[in-house]
Every structure is written in C-alpha cells, then in structure tokens.
Amino acid sequence: MKLNQWTEADLELLKGTFLFSGVSPERVKRAAEDARCRIGVFQKGEVIYDRTHFRKSLGVLLRGSVEVHKGGEDGRGLMLSILETGSLFGAAALFNETERYVTVLSARELTRIVFFPQELVSDLMQEDFRIVTNYMCFLSGRIRFLNDRIEGLAAGNAAGKLAFFLAGGTEQVRGTAEIRLNRSVTALAESLDLGRASLYRAFRELEEAGLIRQEGRTIYISDVEALRNL
C-alpha cells in the first residue's frame, strides 16, 4: 500500500469524522475521490504548517499524531494540544485573506493527512447543509477550547497554569494520559510566564495531589478531567 493513496480503512475513518457526521457514504466517497483532494505524508518532527507555510485547506489526520504549538517557527513555543487520528485542523486558514497561520503543527510520528482545499470544502457545503452544521460545531468547539486555555494561562497560581498546560497536551477528556515535554524547564517556565522555582513547586504540588507523575521529560497524568478542572 502506498502511503499517498486511499485505502478502505481511510474511507471508513473519514466517514466517522466530525466533518462528515450524518453525511451519506456515497457523498464522502465522492469528496475523497475529488481530484482537488490531496494526501500528504510527514515524517516524525516534520513541520506540516507554520506561520508562513501552510495550505488553504482543511486537514484530517488519517494516521499518526500532530503537535500544535503557539510560538516560534521551530515549534518550541507553548504547546496547545496534540491531534490524534481522525482530528481536523486548518480551519483558521479558510475563508479569510490572512497570509500567516496561527500555530505551528509538526508530526509526532509518521503521519498521513488528507487535505480538502477551500474550494472543495465550499462545494461540499453547498451540496449538503449537514457539512455546514458540522463545520460550525467544530469552530464553536475550538473557540471553547481556546477560551479554556486562556483561562488556564491567566490562572492566579503556578499549579493552575501548569495543570492547564499539561491537560492541553492531550485530546483525552478523562482517564489517564502520557505526554512528553519537548523543551527545557527554562523554556517551559518562560512560556507559562513563571520563574523556574515556581514551576518546580507547581510540579511538586500536582505530584503530591496525585494528579501527575514525572519521569524526566515524560509526564504521566492519572486523572485528565481533574487536571483540567483544577
């Protein structure tokens, strides 16, 4: 199987995504087979979008996972989230005239992505209003997510800021999770607007509360929901 070609598993995954919820399998298949649709393959660490290099397309992860950062071109800014298989991204590039993208996206592993260009997305919306509704719900969810992130970063204490940052590193909403920090303590402290000593205390507080366990740069979250609600 070539990584840049469709498979039956890809089509099944696409049917189950948020964008195509309630849409007929035939319409999903036609969208996937449209000549404007493209599949991209990215190696671990490869930048998919940055502030000046991006596509006017809506992306859907077919395989792998992607880190989303807010910050420098090298992706070492604040990590906002991790996108898993089936996730959508790229809405900020559609239906506007911006020449800069809002975040940096990079592959965490070998990753396959299908890109639906703006023109195709517009045509799909005109053909089926359910896609319009799904897209609006997706945007609404992203607004709520970003508001939560802003609230967390504006939290009055270091433990609250760190908790929101760590919870934002996974797409899970409850249960356990594991994330790996991709920056130094100094860089993380700066991105959270904290001193190094305050950051160390915040880690200790969360560990003593039983919410996380730290082993080097790997953080094991014991209760994602509790961490989000701290």
How are the strands ordered across the major sheet? Answer: 1-8-3-6
CATH topology of the largest domain: Jelly Rolls
Major sheet summary line:
4 strands, antiparallel
Helix content: 25-40%
Which structural class is indicated by helix and strand composition? alpha+beta
Q: Helical stretch count? A: 8
Count of individual beta strands = 11
**N-C termini distance:** 45 Å
CATH architecture of the largest domain: Sandwich
Question: Nearest-angstrom radius of gyration?
Answer: 19 Å
Global mean pLDDT: 85
Report the order of strands and helices. HHEEEEEEEEHHHEHHEEH
Q: How many structural domains in the coordinates?
A: 2
The CATH top-level class label of the largest domain: Mainly Beta
Low-confidence stretches: none
Say which CATH homologous superfamily of the largest domain is assigned. Answer: Jelly Rolls
What general form does the structure show? elongated
Strand fraction equals 15-25%
Please characterize this protein's 3D structure:
The protein folds into two domains: about 10-145, Jelly Rolls (Sandwich); about 155-230, Orthogonal Bundle (Arc Repressor Mutant, subunit A). With about 230 residues, it is of the alpha+beta class. The chain is about 40% helix and about 20% strand. It starts with 7 loop residues before the first helix and ends with a helix. Strand 10 (about 210-215) and strand 11 (about 220) form a beta hairpin. The chain contains eight helices and eleven strands.
